[in-house]
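Figure 3 (text version): structure tokens given as input.
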């Protein structure tokens, strides 16, 4: 049933548009709505213009379209689904920013793809943050498992949530979408099969303020295991044991220990101005695709000031069988390493520890891949070999290299005609 023009005016007035604006926007809308009522085809630009002008959802406009699938196909543009997603996303941003016009201290980005089992717990952990000056940007990346419905319910209950929808484009594209619209002084990324402690954002922001607003605030985290008792479900990661910078604020050049550990890009705050100044974004690869690795190197190398806290507020789930850490395509780790090597070449990185961290990842990835049941030499070796040729063989004597990594590397080099280190 099509709604009336009066109903549309009511929608507009509830969105706090002034009387003068109301008349101007109503006149703008009148021609398009008249064409819709007459069953005349309407261009995409008209629908987009009317929605943006009136700050209303495209669903409100589409309610004017007469019932009947054939009629709707004749009237509406062919690419209407794409337009609908774009306008719904615009409406979601406008709704949140009218309710919360002041820029938040932290923008929290939640990329979402088929995580319905864990999603509610994750979103709840973000909503109960003791810091209230936050915006929560949820990007539904074409989920097919009910995740979108879960997000809609939360968005209806809390106006701090901006819910964006897109066709499936992968983790990197989802986070980039959030970065593009974020308004916070700092940005945080929370993966939606994990969850955070209530004080995380406030605690990390307090560190930022105490240390003169550094480019990155990085913290430790918990390795979280489901189906274990409360005393055993959280474990300390290696970074918590080995990271002890001599100064409260440092750079990777002066304290490179961080660069050797798991990227853990989600146990951080990133100053948004820093990301923008260096045009730092994620690689937009299919799926999750280990795109945190290049982002980690980009941010760590280009940050002039990094603050560290050993306190752990992030629970990194180890028991999700769909996580990207369970590698099914053995090319992916080496595709990301290739991108990291190109970044290092472009920036002329010659710091021995930063290069050493790349060599360590080469060896770790190689040992992981060749023992993986999904390893297919004919498919995977063309990506592995060019990366391995960049290995400084003297690094095999480094104490960070395990005996297994040395053995695997030597065996692989021998079998593939590379110089045996």
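Below: residues designed for each position.
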């Amino acid at each position: 049933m099509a709604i009336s023009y009066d109903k549309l005016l009511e929608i507009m007035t509830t969105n706090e548009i002034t009387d003068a604006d109301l008349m101007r926007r109503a006149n703008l809308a009148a021609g398009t709505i008249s064409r819709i009522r007459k069953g005349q085809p309407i261009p995409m630009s008209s629908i987009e213009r009317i929605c943006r002008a009136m700050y209303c959802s495209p669903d409100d406009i589409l309610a004017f379209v007469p019932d009947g699938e054939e009629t709707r196909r004749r009237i509406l543009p062919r690419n209407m689904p794409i337009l609908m997603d774009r306008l719904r996303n615009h409406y979601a941003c406008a709704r949140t920013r009218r309710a919360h016009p002041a820029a938040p201290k932290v923008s929290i980005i939640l990329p979402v793809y088929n995580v319905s089992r864990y999603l509610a717990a994750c979103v709840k952990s973000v909503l109960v943050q003791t810091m209230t000056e936050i915006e929560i940007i949820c990007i539904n990346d074409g989920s097919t498992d009910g995740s979108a419905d879960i997000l809609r319910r939360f968005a209806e209950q809390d106006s701090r949530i901006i819910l964006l929808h897109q066709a499936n484009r992968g983790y990197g594209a989802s986070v980039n979408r959030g970065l593009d619209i974020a308004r916070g002084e700092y940005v945080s990324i929370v993966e939606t099969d994990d969850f955070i402690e209530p004080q995380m954002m406030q605690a990390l922001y307090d560190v930022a303020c105490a240390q003169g607003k550094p480019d990155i605030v990085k913290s430790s985290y918990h390795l979280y295991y489901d189906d274990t008792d409360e005393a055993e479900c959280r474990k300390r990661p290696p970074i918590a044991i080995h990271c002890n910078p001599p100064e409260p604020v440092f750079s990777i050049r002066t304290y490179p220990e961080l660069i050797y550990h798991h990227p853990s890009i989600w146990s951080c705050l990133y100053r948004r101005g820093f990301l923008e100044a260096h045009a730092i974004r994620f690689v937009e690869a299919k799926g999750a695709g280990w795109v945190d690795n290049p982002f980690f190197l980009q941010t760590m190398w280009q940050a002039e000031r990094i603050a560290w806290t050993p306190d752990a507020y992030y629970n990194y789930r180890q028991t999700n069988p769909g996580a990207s850490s369970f590698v099914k395509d053995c090319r992916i780790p080496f595709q990301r390493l290739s991108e990291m090597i190109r970044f290092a070449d472009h920036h002329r990185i010659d710091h021995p520890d930063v290069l050493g961290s790349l060599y360590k990842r080469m060896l770790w990835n190689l040992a992981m891949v060749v023992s993986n049941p999904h390893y297919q030499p004919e498919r995977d070796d063309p990506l592995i070999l060019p990366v391995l040729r960049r290995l400084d063989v003297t690094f095999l004597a480094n104490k960070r290299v395990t005996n297994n990594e040395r053995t695997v590397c030597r065996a692989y080099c021998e079998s593939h005609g590379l110089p045996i280190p």
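The domain at 100-317 is CATH 3.90.550.10 (Spore Coat Polysaccharide Biosynthesis Protein SpsA; Chain A).
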